[in-house]
Design goal:
The complex is a heterodimer of chains A (113) and B (115). Chain A is mainly β. Helix content of chain A is 0%, strand content 50%. Chain A has no helices and 11 strands. In chain A, the strands form 2 sheets. In chain A, strands 2, 4, 5, 6, 9, 10 and 11 form a 7-stranded mixed beta sheet that branches. Chain A has a 4-stranded antiparallel beta sheet with strand order 1-3-8-7, with no helix packed on it. Chain A is globular and about 35 Å long. Chain B is mainly beta and 115 residues long. In chain B, a hairpin with a 5-residue loop joins β5 (32-38) and β6. The model of chain B has no long low-confidence stretch (mean pLDDT 91). Classes of the chains: A mainly beta (113), B mainly beta (115). The A-B interface holds A 4, 6, 31, 33, 35, 40-45, 48, 55-56, 58, 91, 93, 95, 98-107, 109 and B 4, 32, 34, 36, 41-46, 49, 51, 90, 92, 94-108.
């Protein structure tokens, strides 16, 4: 078991560009979560999946954000028309089931210039 | 609504001294409670968790935490701090099993350790 992995670890982009991040959860974990962490703050929930179904989205997740988990394994988070306010660490976590411990990946740090 | 308060933004201790990081939560039912640690530029590592049962829970790296329902607290303790414990510590609360279990995090406490 190699843990949760995220790719890329760092992304620098210009305002207005689209970016996509990937998360590979721990194998056999049914639930996958996305969180966003800005400097000096704790992580904030964005969305989560039970297998391939997206069950909840935070109001933080504007129309420019979309997440998928097409086969119930890895997930992607896309941000369209990035803004400077999108600069943050994007964290992925997975758990075996609802209410179980969430294990976090190393995160993708996004910088929007 | 669920919330977590970590009153101490920054704590400085000497190596070998004892440590207590405070965490207060707001949740209507029995919460799931967690402490995570984050080193600079890294993801979060689980230190310990409380789901039910014994209110004193042991975690990794010599940490422990005590759930006090009457005080809505879940403070993290360590009897003797090591320089490698310098990091950011986050307390989090989760909803009961079977419900939406997104974690609500506090704003974190940055621990600095002096030799």
């Amino acid at each position: 078991d190699t843990g949760v992995s995220q790719d890329p670890r760092h992304k620098i982009t210009k305002r207005g560009q689209n970016v996509t991040f990937r998360c590979d959860p721990i194998s056999e974990h049914n639930r996958l979560y996305w969180y966003r962490q800005t400097l000096g703050q704790g992580p904030e929930f964005l969305t989560y999946f039970q297998n391939e179904a997206q069950l909840e989205k935070s109001r933080l997740l504007s129309d420019r954000f979309s997440a998928e988990r097409p086969k119930g394994s890895f997930s992607t988070l896309e941000i369209q028309r990035t803004e400077q306010g999108d600069s943050a660490m994007y964290l992925c976590a997975s758990s075996l089931d609802g209410g179980d411990t969430q294990y976090f990946g190393p995160g993708t740090r996004l910088t929007v210039l | 609504a669920q919330s977590v308060t970590q009153p101490d933004i920054h704590i400085t201790v000497s190596e070998g001294a004892s440590l207590e990081l405070r965490c207060n939560y707001s949740y209507g039912a029995t919460p799931y409670l967690f402490w995570y640690v984050q080193s600079p530029g890294q993801g979060l590592q689980l230190l310990l968790k409380y789901f039910s049962g014994d209110t004193l829970v042991q975690g990794i790296k010599g940490f422990e935490a005590e759930f006090k329902r009457s005080q809505s607290s879940f403070n993290l303790r360590k009897p003797s701090v090591h320089w490698s414990d310098a990091a950011e510590y986050f307390c989090a609360v989760g909803a009961s099993k079977g419900n939406t279990d997104k974690l609500i995090f506090g704003t974190g406490t940055r621990l600095q350790v002096f030799p």
